């Protein structure tokens, strides 16, 4: 365990520490438990909107798990220039749901996977390759605001899960007492163990909360008939399924490629923000090499996965919250998480066990995690940025616009369709407003104006980067 230094937090395990195998497996399972439901939900939502059958839906879910696992392993250990050697758990992001469903309905799933294949590495690969030139435009103020808005705009999603999600809506039980009770139980156990215990109990607080919540849900289902878990899914799942290249085919529609290229830019911003949230635990910003490797991983694995019908892969903000919440920064724990995900991706039967977790149970954990993500963004800003008049205005504008479009997207319905799609993304609205203001308003973190002026008092310099920086 390390004490905090240079603004870093107290860590139970540092970046290169290797916890004992039993503890590593449990800690890796904790990461899996927090991300697997939203990661696979992307596949279920898109498949449902497009009208795919059960077998095709199960296959896409399987591929999402498999390539999430592979991308997580590469992120933790690297393959050549691909990967950052950081504890970043990878998965399929909700950023791509709307575009994938729209394109799938209008052009077919072949056009969806063709667009991912072309735009994935083309966008994030180029950004990663040239990140040394781009880096001055993303100081702690900008990246911190990206982390903050990612956490804040996911809070309604967490509350939706707490209330029971879509299944509860259809059953007329949204916000019912048993859903709220399950979420509250998970929330209370996770917070209680983290705050009032030590050792393995604190480190596995989230996994303990989800596990106990799931067991209680099983009791409510079997003994009291609450119909929280669909046990019929187990009988329909195959034990092992092998990936099939181009199962849905590949088509290349210009409109679809442009839409996904735009969304991969958003994904790159989210990854930059998540990386900053993780390294903030050490009181520093990511190095150029880490930025480049992580973005290469995003783009390359997304393009590769599209050949097997996986949706785009990017870093998962919920798991950044686990790192800061537990103080376990070991990349080897995340490598174990990746191996578990890959195994699940090869066995639909095993994956089904995890994907039957009721929304309310998961909601108790995700609400806590997204709050921690937002808090880590605030911490990143406070540690490396003086909140003078200039920077306070940038914070106010970015959060105001980002949350504005997140909570009231219909306010933009008068814009042209393409403009509405662009400006209704909370991360884009917050990130670009912060980027533009920070770039063109004089101040120390501006890449154009680095001289101090009387109107802009001294700002804290970013923490020095590690020896891996180029």
Automatic annotation (TrEMBL):
<feature type="transmembrane region" description="Helical">
    <location>
        <begin position="176"/>
        <end position="196"/>
    </location>
</feature>
<keyword id="KW-1133">Transmembrane helix</keyword>
<dbReference type="Pfam" id="PF00860">
    <property type="entry name" value="Xan_ur_permease"/>
</dbReference>
<feature type="transmembrane region" description="Helical">
    <location>
        <begin position="333"/>
        <end position="354"/>
    </location>
</feature>
<dbReference type="GO" id="GO:0005886">
    <property type="term" value="C:plasma membrane"/>
</dbReference>
<dbReference type="GO" id="GO:0042907">
    <property type="term" value="F:xanthine transmembrane transporter activity"/>
</dbReference>
<dbReference type="InterPro" id="IPR006043">
    <property type="entry name" value="NCS2"/>
</dbReference>
<keyword id="KW-0472">Membrane</keyword>
<feature type="transmembrane region" description="Helical">
    <location>
        <begin position="203"/>
        <end position="226"/>
    </location>
</feature>
<feature type="transmembrane region" description="Helical">
    <location>
        <begin position="25"/>
        <end position="47"/>
    </location>
</feature>
<feature type="transmembrane region" description="Helical">
    <location>
        <begin position="138"/>
        <end position="156"/>
    </location>
</feature>
<feature type="region of interest" description="Disordered">
    <location>
        <begin position="448"/>
        <end position="470"/>
    </location>
</feature>
<feature type="transmembrane region" description="Helical">
    <location>
        <begin position="360"/>
        <end position="382"/>
    </location>
</feature>
<keyword id="KW-0812">Transmembrane</keyword>
<feature type="transmembrane region" description="Helical">
    <location>
        <begin position="421"/>
        <end position="441"/>
    </location>
</feature>
<feature type="transmembrane region" description="Helical">
    <location>
        <begin position="59"/>
        <end position="79"/>
    </location>
</feature>
<comment type="similarity">
    <text>Belongs to the nucleobase:cation symporter-2 (NCS2) (TC 2.A.40) family.</text>
</comment>
<protein>
    <submittedName>
        <fullName>Nucleobase:cation symporter-2, NCS2 family</fullName>
    </submittedName>
</protein>
<keyword id="KW-0813">Transport</keyword>
<dbReference type="InterPro" id="IPR006042">
    <property type="entry name" value="Xan_ur_permease"/>
</dbReference>
<feature type="transmembrane region" description="Helical">
    <location>
        <begin position="391"/>
        <end position="409"/>
    </location>
</feature>
């Amino acid at each position: 365990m390390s004490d905090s230094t240079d603004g870093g937090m107290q860590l139970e395990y540092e970046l290169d520490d290797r916890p004992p195998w039993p503890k590593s497996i449990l800690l890796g399972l904790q990461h899996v438990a927090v991300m697997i439901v939203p990661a696979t939900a992307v596949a279920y939502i898109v498949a449902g909107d497009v009208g795919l059958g059960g077998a095709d839906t199960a296959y896409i879910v399987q591929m999402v798990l498999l390539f999430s696992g592979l991308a997580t392993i590469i992120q933790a250990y690297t393959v050549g220039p691909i990967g950052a050697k950081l504890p970043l758990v990878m998965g399929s992001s909700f950023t791509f749901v709307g575009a994938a469903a729209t394109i799938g309905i209008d052009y077919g799933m072949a056009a969806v996977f063709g667009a991912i294949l072309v735009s994935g590495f083309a966008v994030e690969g180029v950004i990663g390759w040239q990140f040394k030139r781009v880096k001055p435009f993303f100081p702690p103020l900008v990246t911190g605001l990206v982390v903050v808005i990612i956490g804040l705009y996911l809070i309604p999603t967490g509350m939706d899960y707490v209330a029971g999600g879509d299944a509860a809506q259809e059953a007329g039980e949204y916000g019912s007492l048993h859903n709220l009770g399950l979420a509250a139980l998970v929330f209370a156990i996770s917070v209680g163990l983290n705050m009032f215990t030590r050792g393995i109990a604190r480190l596995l607080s989230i996994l303990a909360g989800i596990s106990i919540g799931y067991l209680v849900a099983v009791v409510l289902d079997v003994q009291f008939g609450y119909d929280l878990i669909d046990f019929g899914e187990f009988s329909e799942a195959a034990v092992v399924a092998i990936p099939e290249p181009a199962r849905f085919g590949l088509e290349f529609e210009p409109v679809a490629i442009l839409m996904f290229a735009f969304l991969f830019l958003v994904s790159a911003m989210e990854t930059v923000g998540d990386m900053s949230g993780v390294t903030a635990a050490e009181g520093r910003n990511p190095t150029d090499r880490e930025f480049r490797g992580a973005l290469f991983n995003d783009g390359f694995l997304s393009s590769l996965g599209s050949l097997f019908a996986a949706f785009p892969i990017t870093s998962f903000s919920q798991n950044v919250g686990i790192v800061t919440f537990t103080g376990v920064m070991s990349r080897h724990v995340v490598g174990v998480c990746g191996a578990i995900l890959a195994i699940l991706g090869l066995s639909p039967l095993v994956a089904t066990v995890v994907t039957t977790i009721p929304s309310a149970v998961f909601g108790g954990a995700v609400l806590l995690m997204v709050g921690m993500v937002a808090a880590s963004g605030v911490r990143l800003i406070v540690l490396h940025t003086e909140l003078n008049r200039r920077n306070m205005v940038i914070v106010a504008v970015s959060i105001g616009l980002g949350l504005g479009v997140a909570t009231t997207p219909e306010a933009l319905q008068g814009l042209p369709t393409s403009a509405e799609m662009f400006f209704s993304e909370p991360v884009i609205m917050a990130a670009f407003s912060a980027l533009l203001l920070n770039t063109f308003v004089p101040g120390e973190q501006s890449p154009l104006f680095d001289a101090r002026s009387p109107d802009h008092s001294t700002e804290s310099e970013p923490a020095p980067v590690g020896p891996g920086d180029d």
